[in-house]
Amino acid sequence: INLTHGNIRLFSSPWSAPAWMKTSGKMAGPGEVLPNLKATWANYYVRFFEEYLARGVSFWATTVQNEPLTTYAPFWQWQATNWNATGEANFVANYLGPALAASAAARNVTIISMDDSRLYLREWADVVFSNPVASSYISGVAVHWYFDAVAPAELLSATHFAHPDKFILATEVSANSSS
Description:
Pfam families: Glyco_hydro_30. Helix 1 (38-54) links the parallel strand 1 and strand 2 (61-63).
């Protein structure tokens, strides 16, 4: 079954690189992908898409990481991998973008940046899209709809006008989220 036909388009969003690939050696809590394993991590994405496609399921897109900045919060205990905007841009430009482009199963998978709180949206987009190679691989940014009091919805418009060739996709939201 190809679920990208019709009204359903799937995207993936990893929560963590495997523990053995991270500086912390743990899935949960802080940790970055070890520098010598970034190509291996990019190939995990490719393998994920290959395995699904082999079973008739194709994906429209992937984010680089779900909530890449949350592990900088004290006592973070969920699965995550640290990325800042510059690190994500470099990972996409040098590893993930080329790996997906080289794969018959993944070359049409759209890359989405950030996938974190709207609080970081404009700054993150400015940094990532200032890297011309990363920008050529990334089609848009994903945002979580939290912190309305400090990150008003106007940030969406400001980011759109700064980067009109990129889309903005809400990927996580809670009703009446004011904190």
